[in-house]
Amino acid sequence: xxxxxxxxxxxxDALEKNxxxxxxxxYALNHYSSNSIYSFIPKNGCTTMRYSFALAxxxxxxxxxxxxxxxxxxxxxxxxxxxxxxxxxxxxxxSPYTRLASAFMDKLVPLKGSPVSSHLSNFIRTSGYxxxxxxxxxxxxxxxxxxxxxxxxxxxxxxxxxxxLVYQDYDSYFRLECFDDAKAEIEHRTRILxxxxxxxxxxxxxxxxxxxxxxxxxxPLKQLSEMKSAGIMPAHAALYDTxxxxxxxxxxxxxxxxxxxxxxxxxxxx
Length: 270
Fold this sequence. Notes:
Layout: H1 19-26, E1 28-31, E2 36-39, H2 46-56, H3 67-70, H4 80-85, E3 88-93, H5 96-108, H6 118-127, H7 139-145, H8 149-152, E4 172-175, H9 179-190, H10 198-201, E5 209-211, H11 221-229, E6 232-234, H12 242-251, H13 253-262
Parallel strand pairs: 2-3, 3-4, 5-6
Antiparallel strand pairs: 1-2
């Protein structure tokens, strides 16, 4: 079977100069014993997957080694030969609505008293939002800024998912919203034992109390930061209204089409 690379022929320059392909290839991880390729997409359960790959590839042995994972994002990146000769390929997709809400609350909303993160700095730099007014940023303003292509690609945690796909087609497309089913199939096909790393990363919504009955689209960063520090966060759906959903469906149209055609088995919100 020929595995067609999605972006390799987009330009006839040397492949090493093909930015689209090189970006996607960096996020294609190799599990060596099963010769499997997993394209990891930030905010799509990738911490659990990268931790499991590090264990399965023999580079770490216990949860005490967890920090190694964050310092070795490219250690298992696939070579061209790895990509072409893989026995199995898979990717885990996610609703753009919940992925974006997760990225905003995790990467842009700081814990009270914390310094400005590199992710928030990326957003401020590319959007032109005044640094002096950073505490006033709302989810609505964040979503509006994503109409700017520079902002959209400024951070890997909200960059469109389709940019991470190194293959034209994968053997399996899974949904994070249906992770239990994905876990069983991945373990069966690769013999990797998947280890839930949410308790190690401590940034999952399972760690907090979620508020579902109030709107938070226009709640400023300062208030969201205070809530987060107290272990309280808006449910993903509570950050949206009809206008924002329509806007995001336009900005991430290619991702929504990808889900519709390849992994339609889950609702918009978890």
